[in-house]
Amino acid sequence: MSALPGVFLTKTQGAFESAMKRLLLACGFTGAVLTGTVHAQGVGDESPSSNAALLAELQVLRNRVIQLEAKVGPEQDMREALARLQARVEATDQNGMNVFWKDGLRVEGDGVVLKFGGRIQNDYTFGSGDSTFDDNYGELEDATEFRRARLYFSGKAHDKVEWKAQYDFAGGDADFKDVFMRFLEVPFLADVTVGQQKEPFSLEEQTSSNHITFLERALPNALVPGRSTGIQSSRTFGDKRGTISVGAFKTGTDSFGDASGDGDNAATARVTYTPIHEDEGRRVVHVGGSYSRRGVDDYKVEVRPEIHDMQKVLKTGTLDASNVKLMGLEAAWVEGPFSLQAEAIRSEVDLDAGGSPQFDGSYVQASYFLTGEHRPYKQSTGAFDRVSPLDPYIGKDATGFGAVELAARYSMIDLNDESITAGELDNWTMGVNWYLSRNTRIMLDYIHFDIDGDSDPTINGDGDAVTLRFQTDF
């Protein structure tokens, strides 16, 4: 029986020490504390030295707990603050409106996106013609104009419908441009657009005037239908590598989208495909074609050189015709900072008196960014998009000189066929573009043109011009 107290004391001491070790481990103690610094002394051992050691270790433990509590407190406060902030963000997403700037003023909230914007293009022209040109057309004078001065309001609701109302004030009145509604992801039809809009024809026409390479589109654009009032269905295919657009339109609409006439209708279609689209759009090959059949009462083509603020030099006159067929082929290649683009367009006119004269136009152009950018290609529209300088010259992200692009183009149009002898025009353009930011650029073009009337001496002459544009959009 005398051995039992010793055994009991030994077991009690071991249990106490084991419990203390587990507690110290939980609090982060290592080393000497776990190798025997704290020892239970037997139940009957109450020496001052052993009590003092135990009290010292307990004080260390108490200090450690205080330190841990000090850490947990701020972290818990931070977690609670983040939770409150997250709740506010979620409440704003669900019920509030977010106002911000992204290439225009935008307002978003409750599934609706609104955008307000516009563009300003102020042009200056300095030119002259030779004596033959002056005799036939009059002197080519220096001039300035606001080529485009537009404001628009657009929106999108719940990813189901879009709308846009754009007006151009250049020339002193408020002409309609894009005024339409677009229903998104309609079964079997994809996107359906109703109203005044661009007909789906030509790569350069589908590229916004904010993003074209030269001040003016090439000469064949005189054969291309622009905006008309009607209905158009558009969709992508082939993993978004291709686009197809088909529409029915009223021909001969005025500057407010209005037209009348029983047979003045058009069916227009465009198909594009990008067999190569790599390196985030820095390497692209684009091909496409367009077709339009148009009922008309009369038809005429008038062409000026690639200088908007000058007289038209080729004119077919008004032709009595029943319908017109338009055909277009297009191709483009982007290889890093280099790009190449070309189109060929034909207009075939069925005259009431018999005969089907054909008018042809074509162009080829190349450009190169000295600063390393590339022409962005937008697969959803099969057209080129906005250039973003790598080092903008202005703006909150201004870091450098902006983007510099050199460009050259040759274009021609021939209005001589069968009984029609309206002449031929050739145009050579050299250009340099300075992109100060995504939204602002300065453009400088040098143009040489040559008019050839074949056997008609009154359709003849050549000239040169320098055109300058200051452009911003928002």
What does this structure look like?
With about 475 residues, the chain is an alpha+beta fold. It folds into two domains: about 5-85, no CATH class; about 125-150 and about 200-474, Beta Barrel (Porin), CATH 2.40.160.10. About 20% of the residues lie in helices and about 50% in strands. It has helices spanning about 5-25, 50-95, 130-135, 205; strands at about 100, 105-110, 110-130, 145-155, 160-170, 175-185, 190-200, 225-235, 240-250, 265-280, 285-295, 300, 300-305, 315, 320-335, 340-350, 360-370, 375-380, 385, 405-415, 420-435, 440-450, 460-474. The strands form three sheets. The protein has a 16-stranded antiparallel barrel. Strand 10 (about 265-280) and strand 11 form a beta hairpin. The model is unreliable at about 1-15 and about 30-45 (pLDDT under 50).
